[in-house]
């Protein structure tokens, strides 16, 4: 079969063996696969990430010396079953699958491991247990966005965002745009989107962002401050203690310590906005921590594969929450698929191009600095050689 292979940071179209499904596995004929931002990073920074993942117990992340078929955002048609499968779906059924698989007792990330070839190919092997049928009537290009939308569903869940919270999305690439879609689907009233690119800011508007900001012209934090009563200086936080005690000590018989504890539970001390960092380049965490109001919750969604640094003292003084996310669970994957199928989110603005295998290497270079592109899909049957 034809596939796009990554080796030493270079991409080439090659003829390789078609993978064979093992026990409990399914062979899919790939219909669409997306180029993910983490693929762009992995092509050049895989060794750094492999070192880190090995430290946390996963030593099979791709390295530059490997020959890897990338691709973990895909939909495909049932082509064949391996042994010990339930064979629930007829051949030709369109399905989506989580990009994780086990060979024996060993887990692999599909498309990010030399031992689990991904979907930049005509065929890909997936786990039957992790496979879900695409509901009838869902356009192919929309169904192909299930995996990146799953990342956004997980990120928003981790952010504990309420409808009355102000959410700020920094970076309006495919993941940032997906976060905007999920936030609006959950009924969050105020979503502020910030991006340097005019093209991506326009995409953010189309995805439902209520306020769109060019950070070189206006600070998203100043905009957020107009929407919420946030604390921006440590002195304000300290002064709340004085003000509370001044009032509470004058109420006879009131156990003031319990009143303060109750106030904390009901949000008497203002929290900051919920910020989603969707850029994933060095310096972004420091930039956000420095700019945000006190007690802001920051969800780091962008995958930075390089070393970075920020000032903990700044985060400490602001009592900032930092939450890092990766992947999603099977229920969140299903939620994403059905948000698309039920029409609760419209992912069509995200798809800005469909190409064939022969264009992939060139498109990787373009996407590194493209201002008007979001999600580019690969159609294995396409002869399109450029965007």
From TrEMBL:
Q: Where does the record place the Alcohol dehydrogenase-like N-terminal domain?
A: 22-136
- GO MF, any single term: oxidoreductase activity
Asked if the keyword Secreted belongs to this entry, the reply reads: no
| Pfam families assigned to the protein according to its UniProt record, in alphabetical order | ADH_N
For this protein, the record's InterPro entries field holds: ADH-like_N (IPR013154), ADH_Zn_CS (IPR002328), GroES-like_sf (IPR011032), NAD(P)-bd_dom_sf (IPR036291)
Please give the PANTHER family that the UniProt record associates with this protein.
ZINC-TYPE ALCOHOL DEHYDROGENASE-LIKE PROTEIN C1198.01 (PTHR43189:SF1), ZINC-TYPE ALCOHOL DEHYDROGENASE-LIKE PROTEIN C1198.01-RELATED (PTHR43189)
Name of protein: Putative zinc-containing alcohol dehydrogenase
Q: What is the lineage of its organism?
A: Bacteria, Bacillati, Actinomycetota, Actinomycetes, Mycobacteriales
């Amino acid at each position: 079969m034809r596939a796009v292979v990554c080796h030493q940071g270079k991409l080439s179209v090659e003829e390789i063996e078609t993978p064979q499904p093992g026990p409990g596995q399914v062979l899919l004929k790939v219909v669409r696969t997306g180029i993910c931002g983490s693929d762009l990073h992995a092509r050049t920074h895989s060794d750094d990430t492999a070192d880190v993942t090995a430290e946390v117990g996963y030593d099979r992340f791709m390295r530059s010396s490997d020959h890897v078929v990338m691709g973990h955002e895909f939909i495909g048609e049932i082509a064949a079953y391996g042994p010990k499968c339930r064979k629930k779906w007829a051949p030709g059924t369109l399905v989506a699958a989580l990009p994780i698989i086990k060979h024996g007792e060993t887990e692999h990330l599909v498309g990010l491991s030399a031992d689990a070839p991904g979907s930049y190919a005509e065929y890909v092997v997936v786990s039957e247990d992790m496979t879900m049928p695409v509901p009838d009537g869902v356009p192919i290009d929309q169904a192909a966005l299930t995996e990146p939308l799953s990342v956004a569903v997980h990120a928003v869940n981790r952010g504990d965002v309420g409808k009355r919270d102000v959410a700020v999305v920094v970076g309006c690439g495919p993941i940032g745009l997906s976060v905007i879609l999920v936030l609006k689907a959950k009924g969050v009233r105020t979503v502020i989107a910030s991006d340097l690119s005019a093209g991506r800011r326009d995409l953010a508007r189309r995805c439902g962002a209520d306020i769109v900001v060019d950070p070189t012209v206006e600070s998203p934090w100043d905009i957020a401050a107009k929407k919420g009563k946030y604390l921006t200086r440590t002195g304000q936080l300290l002064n709340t203690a004085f003000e509370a005690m001044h009032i509470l000590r004058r109420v006879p018989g009131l156990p003031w310590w319990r009143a303060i504890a109750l106030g904390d539970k009901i949000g008497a001390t203002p929290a900051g906005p919920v910020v989603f960092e969707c850029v994933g380049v060095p310096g972004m965490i420091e930039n956000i921590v420095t700019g945000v109001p006190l007690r802001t919750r920051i969800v780091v969604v962008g995958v930075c594969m390089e070393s970075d640094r920020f000032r903990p003292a700044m985060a400490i003084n602001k009592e900032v929450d930092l939450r890092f996310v990766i992947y999603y669970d099977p229920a969140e994957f299903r939620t994403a698929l059905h948000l698309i199928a039920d029409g609760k989110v419209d992912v069509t603005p995200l798809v800005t191009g469909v190409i064939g295998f022969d264009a992939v290497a060139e498109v990787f270079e373009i996407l590194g600095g493209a201002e008007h592109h979001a999600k580019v899909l690969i159609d294995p049957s396409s002869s399109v050689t450029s965007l």
